[in-house]
Amino acid sequence: MRKPADKAQVDAEVQRVVELRHPEPHSVLGIHPDGDGVVIRAFRPDAVALHVLPESGGRVAMTHRQGGVFEARINGKDQTFNYLLEVEYPGKRVFTLRDPYSFLPTLGEMDLYYAGEGRHERLWERMGAHLLHHNGVRGTSFAVWAPTAAGVSVVGDFNGWDGRLHSMRRMGSSGIWELFVPEVGEGTRYKFEIRPGQGGANVLKADPFAFRTEVPPATASVVHDLARYQWNDAAWLDQRAQRHDVHHQPWSVYEIHLGSWRRVVEDGDRPMTYRELAPALAEYIKFTGFTHVELLPVAEHPYGGSWGYQVGGYYAPTARFGHPDDLRFFIDHMHQEGIGVLVDWVPGHFPRDLHALGQFDGTSLYEHADPRKGAQPDWGTLVFNFGRNEVRNFLIANALFWIEEYHIDGLRVDAVASMLYLDYSRKQGEWIPNRWGGRENEEAIHFMRELNETVRRKHPGVVVIAEESTAWPKVSSPVEEGGLGFHFKWNMGWMHDTLSYFSKDPIYRQYHHNQLTFGLLYAFSEHFMLPLSHDEVVHGKGSLYGRMPGDPWQKRANLRALFAWMWAHPGKKLVFMGGEFGQPAEWNHDKSLDWHLTHEPGHRGILLLMADLNRIYRDMPALYDADSEPMGFQWLQPDAAADNVFAFVRRSRQPGRHVVCIANLSPAVRENYRVGFPLQGRYVELLNTDAEQYGGSNRGNMGQLQTEPTGWDGQPASATITLPPLSVLWFTPG
């Protein structure tokens, strides 16, 4: 016969449960062998009576032991057994429930080991809230990392948000707390109530791994079945996996903010839902010819005005536009229509909102404790502690989560420079040098390399893109070559120089000619993407259209020329919504784009040009397949500053295929202007931004030209051609 437990010792353990400071309440509560039978304990502080209902039958009264802990001893039982608890509250309110403290842990030793090592690549499958059958009972398992907490409870709709009722158990030295709660199902709201180990008030936190949230400004996490959605994009994923060499593919990206692309005016001007957006956006993308859409951050964020760049829930799509499966439907539909989906991802910083990651267990858990490393002065946010295994694991698993669970085709990593440099936006004395006395953040560099190596290894064809604005070398080179491992880098220098040039009155452009030529000195040092992003149409900068000089006709002509120049320039393409039809107003995240303008001839012409640019771009490998190689570009006329003329050749990796691009960025028509060409013979006009259908003056070369064997611009042949005003022309051998 087993020796009965010592009463004084049990009293002490029970008191720790009552005070909500027991790290393993399962060792006290639930069913336990004791002497010649078993003892069952339950903590229901407001109950007036409890009974045990054994699965084999019967009804055993429980006695109140202390502080709301009830106990029943059943003699003659040599094993534990399944049972229910019948709980009576004042007013004869009686509930029958399964005891959560009668279940074994749902986390295994290997889960805890890999999580502690920072190598659990599917961490989201174990942490957070998971619907499952456990010991034949359906319910939800909860797990949260709070290593310095004195105690953690899960609270929610199922227990009246009472932190006394569902204290969690600490899983050894892992810092992870776990509890299986029977009969908690889909759609249940919950949070974690954390009792700081260093004292102070309890904190109520949303689940860092929640798959679903309430609609902001509400902040509760919501239990969600991640396995329910049935995908229909297998063909797309198979094709993507075969496209290993992404640098030789056409990339024309349409960046959008989901909440303001197109709003439902007749229904209170509300944003469209994920399911409403799917067919409307897919139809538009197919018309305009973009290869991908890029969504401003979709992870849940407390403040809509942050556009998603201050993330509160890294594993939950924002509930503003619908259910998580609705976002999956959106991505699924895009893939079935042949459109890739990229998302902006924000691992560099997170907001200070009380319900989110900051001071999660009462200490600086996800962020650095020292504000010289843990605070981002530009945005008033906190910075992840990349040196901590669990934090790196949280973020890298999150990247894999969006790729594997939402079939995302790529992540554009926000604000990479803020992670690379310890002194980013900090004055002397406001930052801590690295161990060598330098400004490089070695922990963040390690994190980014691990992230990119992991994505490349597990998901060929998926890309990771860096928004990086400095001269850091080899951002888009593989890690084994000493790089950071990103697939592409946004070319911010090109963007600033190009917009600066095009915003100038043509009379002054000859003095700034180098702003369009300088970028070719470094164009092949990285795998670049050329961005005209949301950042360029906010905060008083105006729209792309608004930056163009001249009267409305000239503004439209300049914008058409800008786009054709960009699409011919080495580098993948990205433009923010509204730019493609020349919206005059600056972007407002609370308003729809001005879609009525697409029916006005001038703006319709810009939109038609964009559609043709994308169509020709995808059809002409010379415009994309050697973007990162010097052989793919050759200047013809880099120095015609007085005429505001530029001319160059784009060459394909496929022998003989090329496109000649000629830009006249002056409002004057240039007749009989001689330009060199690589071949003698007939060239056909692929594009003329001054064509009538685009709203131009329809000057040009009748759709073709014949070169003659007169050497010019270092080429064996040349032709005299008409250069329309404020225009770009493309020619290819015909």
UniProtKB/TrEMBL annotation:
Catalytically driven reaction(s): Transfers a segment of a (1->4)-alpha-D-glucan chain to a primary hydroxy group in a similar glucan chain
Pathway connected to this protein: Glycan biosynthesis; glycogen biosynthesis
TM spans (from-to): none
Annotated GO CC locations: cytosol
Pfam families attached to this UniProt entry: Alpha-amylase, Alpha-amylase_C, CBM_48, GlgB_N
Domain Glycosyl hydrolase family 13 catalytic: 255-601
EC number: 2.4.1.18
Keywords, sorted A to Z: Carbohydrate metabolism, Glycogen biosynthesis, Glycogen metabolism, Glycosyltransferase, Transferase
GO molecular function terms noted in the UniProt entry: 1,4-alpha-glucan branching enzyme activity; cation binding; hydrolase activity, hydrolyzing O-glycosyl compounds
Residues of the active site: D414, E467
Superkingdom in the source lineage: Bacteria
GO process terms (BP): glycogen biosynthetic process
Assembly with partners or alone: Monomer.
Family: Belongs to the glycosyl hydrolase 13 family. GlgB subfamily.
Known function: Catalyzes the formation of the alpha-1,6-glucosidic linkages in glycogen by scission of a 1,4-alpha-linked oligosaccharide from growing alpha-1,4-glucan chains and the subsequent attachment of the oligosaccharide to the alpha-1,6 position.
Protein known as: 1,4-alpha-glucan branching enzyme GlgB
Lineage, opening ranks: Bacteria, Pseudomonadati, Myxococcota, Myxococcia, Myxococcales
Gene name for this UniProt entry: glgB
